[in-house]
Design goal:
By secondary structure, the protein is of the alpha+beta class. It is built from 5 helices and 12 strands.
Length: 181
């Protein structure tokens, strides 16, 4: 297929209008499929995935066949990723085509009662990332705005994809105030 015109801030071409992606269909039913390359809407960013990994949440989702907070099956799979910006939607600032970035798996609203109380992991309107195990990943606007960071030069995609699980571990040790005793 010919390239796809993506993004409203200029013509952004991707190699094909189709891509390979892992798609969850149900318990223990994960399939490699050809699906359309997503087109970024306002505020969204399209990444060419360079690194993705699995965590215990992925394993649990595969065994159980999904997660209530994520899209219904068949659903794109995976939520820890880094990549190179392939295209941006209208209104995106701070990143441009070709930038290497790492993306968190969610972004809280910052306004609901749990967020206001400093508990963003309990956000009533949290937005989740889904579809990291694909050639391209569509990053929702709120995640692109709040939880997408430039990839430091020299940090491999393999290591960069571990940023979100590492952040969970660091936050956990901070919360329990681990000490010498």
């Amino acid at each position: 297929m010919p390239g796809s015109d993506i993004g409203a801030q200029g013509t952004r071409l991707v190699p094909s209008a189709a891509m390979r992606a892992l798609v969850l269909h149900g318990p223990d039913d994960l399939r490699l499929e050809e699906v359309p390359v997503p087109v970024p809407g306002p505020g969204e960013v399209l990444l060419r995935v360079t690194g993705a990994l699995t965590c215990a949440t992925d394993a649990k989702m595969m065994r159980q066949g999904g997660h209530p907070a994520l899209p219904p099956n068949p659903a794109p799979f995976g939520h820890e990723a880094c990549g190179v910006v392939a295209a941006v939607g209208v209104g995106v600032t701070g990143v441009a085509e070709g930038d290497a970035v790492v993306v968190a798996n969610s972004a809280p609203c910052g306004e609901c009662p749990p967020c206001a109380a400093g508990r963003p992991s309990l956000c009533e309107w949290i937005v989740y990332l889904s579809g990291a195990f694909a050639e391209y990943l569509l990053v929702p606007a709120r995640i692109a705005q709040r939880n997408m960071l430039p990839l430091p030069e020299g940090l491999s995609p393999r290591r960069a994809a571990m940023v979100e699980p590492l952040a969970c571990a660091v936050r956990g040790t901070d919360r329990v105030q681990a000490g010498a005793d």
